[in-house]
Fold each of these.
Amino acid sequence: SQQGEEDPQALSIQEGENATMNCSYKTSINNLQWYRQNSGRGLVHLILIRSNEREKHSGRLRVTLDTSKKSSSLLITASRAADTASYFCATDAAAGNKLTFGGGTRVLVKP
Amino acid sequence: DAGVTQSPTHLIKTRGQHVTLRCSPISGHKSVSWYQQVLGQGPQFIFQYYEKEERGRGNFPDRFSARQFPNYSSELNVNALLLGDSALYLCASSLGRSLYNEQFFGPGTRLTVL
């Protein structure tokens, strides 16, 4: 079973628009990470947010974490065609050494 | 520096056969993890090895096994293949023991079971 669930499952936007996707999880975590995957190949790490952080920025990416609601959001600002990919959240449970991925959000950025 | 490498890139097997997948981590990385990604889903954690010892295991049957060698490369073995084992198998490496460090993924091995 997958701890994290992304919403929406798919997103289609125009270049230049912002893309927002959400991740919900079930158990207490140490950290939450976001990864990008292009065309079913290897994943690329985007950003990590620790359980004691509420917001983090990296370039055009903004991640928020609400541990009381067990949810996180990823915002991509001023999207580009190259941002077309699947985005996954991954959590490491506070108990046990295991990294759990959500089902992903497929983002299509139209030029 | 080379990234994580995996071999083979693609593999076709028939039900009941055995398969071995290989992974070479980034130089200096001592942790290797394996994931199974079925089409349209997120990766599912199979194993983590650190310093040649198993440090984590996901909910996979005993048909799945792995090991890590003294040079930190790793093999994933799957016995008695089933159709449902068809997936992209991803390997990731990281510096530290914990999985909450950034994971560096290889391109994957696509396994098709007929």
Amino acid sequence: GQQLNQSPQSMFIQEGEDVSMNCTSSSIFNTWLWYKQDPGEGPVLLIALYKAGELTSNGRLTAQFGITRKDSFLNISASIPSDVGIYFCAGQLRGAQKLVFGQGTRLTINP
Amino acid sequence: SQTIHQWPATLVQPVGSPLSLECTVEGTSNPNLYWYRQAAGRGLQLLFYSVGIGQISSEVPQNLSASRPQDRQFILSSKKLLLSDSGFYLCAWSKLARNEQYFGPGTRLTVT
């Protein structure tokens, strides 16, 4: 089946640093979504992207829908302790009812 | 506003016992519904999805089944649990013609 390559798999940063992660695919997607999952909870939708080149912000988070429609990026500025968790990208192929998920980026922040 | 509920929150079951996990959505009608499984520290594996009452699509051949007896109710079942069925089970919903999925709080299943 379709796969999304999400990187990095894990990140260890200092509080206050900026964070960047991305997802790539060999297929073209119509939608890119970014989720955050805290331990023991369900993923929470952070940002949804629907157009190639689209750049959307949600507070300190910014995500972009790649021009080629095969990738997406998530940036977190000035990280704080509550940003700790696992971040997942997800994409939807045209006409599909389901999402394809990346394997996640685990973010750890040292105070 | 819409909310999604799952129960139970945690479950410990012996191998060979039956399973029934329930998911309900409030505040919307005709949602698409999804069941995912997540192994510890891993990504999300889609198990089943449904676009309407009685309509179930299976993604992975396995020991599990799903049913949708009502518009906003989605049930995950097994007749005989295996050790490999342990994991974190997540239900999600989306609006028809929209791609954003919203997840429930999950059920932690441990098969012993």
